[in-house]
Specification:
9-stranded mixed β-sheet, 11 helices, Rossmann fold, two-stranded antiparallel ribbon, alpha/beta, 361 residues, 27% helix
């Protein structure tokens, strides 16, 4: 049995292997039925690797919808099931990234000087990575709740499933930055990467447990839960075993995985194992201590509030739903350097108040 540490290392080194396209030959895959409709991807022929490994072909399905678009009145709301479709949906191109500020922008440089709060300043010191990421993140849309599936084309039995939740920041990123073809082929696993809402669209908290029934944040975590439910009900059609699902997260992705591990709203059987890399729910930057203060700043900047947002959240929410997504994610906000402006917060629903105790059980 291959060591799990090898897989962890492989996930790390493959993080950007899809950027150059690999010169792979593409042919259409089989048509796969799902609960909501049929999908068709393509077959990637990998050929010999640089380490003289012969890698078998994989089927790739890019941009499979796992939830309805969180647009209009659904902005800031928990994710909903996708609408079914007729015919066969072609899943050949990466889906749009969820709205986010462009890495390496002026906002990054402002934050690096301590006047911003998006955890992006470290990447400004990696120009090669920055140059590779920017083209992949330019295509953005609020209609972004999609997942990508990589599965060996030839298999004789149901395979273990790995679900990778991207990290680095709760403000930027995309599941499409990670190409799972080689890991799926070499490890004989089904690999899934997902998008989830980021920044204010994914973690706006207007109540913070003060008795309000307004949005409590953690929409991004709810998206991840919706993706897990989709995987649980559909992954067997792609050759995966829904009883052998491992969640893998790096940095803020590891924090998200850790919160899902202790969340009371996660139904039993959604996953069986977790791998946390460079982060956990106990990290000092894992949650936002005063999320309503950030929400207040956001609302005031867009002239949606002049007082306590907790007492007038319906009006504030309606106003913010009329602001463009790009204006929201690029709002300049005060925060401490290297700490999340927006991120998970204890809401008593997705993240229980006793999550520390749950972690030690």
């Amino acid at each position: 049995m291959k060591s799990v540490y090898f897989y962890i290392h492989l996930v790390s080194i493959l993080a950007l292997c899809g950027i150059n396209g690999g010169g792979s030959e593409k042919t259409l895959s089989r048509v796969v039925p799902t609960v909501y409709g049929s999908v068709q991807g393509y077959v990637r022929h990998l050929g010999p690797s640089s380490h003289d490994l012969t890698l078998s072909p994989v089927e790739v399905f890019l941009g499979v919808p796992y939830a309805a678009p969180p647009t209009g009145q659904a902005r800031f709301s928990p994710s909903m099931s996708p609408l079914p479709w007729d015919g066969t949906r072609r899943c050949l191109e990466p889906p749009p990234a969820c709205p986010q500020p462009m890495v390496g922008s002026a906002g990054d440089r402002q934050e690096a000087s301590g006047r911003g709060g998006r955890m992006q300043s470290p990447i400004t010191g990696r120009p090669a990575l920055l140059a590779a990421l920017r083209p992949l993140l330019q295509y953005q849309s609020e209609d972004c709740l999609y997942l990508n599936i990589y599965t060996p084309q030839q298999r004789s039995e149901s395979l273990a499933v790995m679900v990778y939740i991207h990290g680095e920041s709760f403000t930027w990123g995309s599941g499409s930055l990670y190409d799972g073809s080689i890991l799926a082929s070499y490890g004989q696993v089904v690999l899934v990467t997902i998008n989830y809402r980021l920044g204010p669209l994914g973690f706006l908290n207007l109540q913070s447990g003060k008795g309000s029934d307004g949005p409590s944040g953690n929409q991004g975590l709810m998206d991840q839960l919706a993706a897990l439910e989709w995987i649980h009900h559909n992954i067997h059609q792609f050759g995966g075993d829904p009883q052998r699902v491992t969640l893998v997260g790096h940095s803020t992705g590891a924090v998200a995985v850790n919160y899902l591990l202790v969340s009371p709203v996660v139904a039993p059987g959604m996953f069986q194992r977790v791998i946390l890399m460079s982060g956990s729910a106990l990290s000092s930057w894992a949650s936002v201590a005063d999320p309503t203060s950030t929400a207040q700043q956001l609302a005031e900047h867009h002239h949606c509030a002049q007082g306590d947002t907790n007492t007038r959240w319906p009006e504030v929410l309606s106003c913010l739903q009329d602001v463009s997504a790009q204006d929201l994610v690029n709002t300049p906000l005060r925060n401490y350097q290297f700490l999340s402006t927006f991120g998970p917060s204890v809401d008593g629903v997705v993240i229980p108040h006793d999550f520390n105790e749950r972690l030690t059980r």
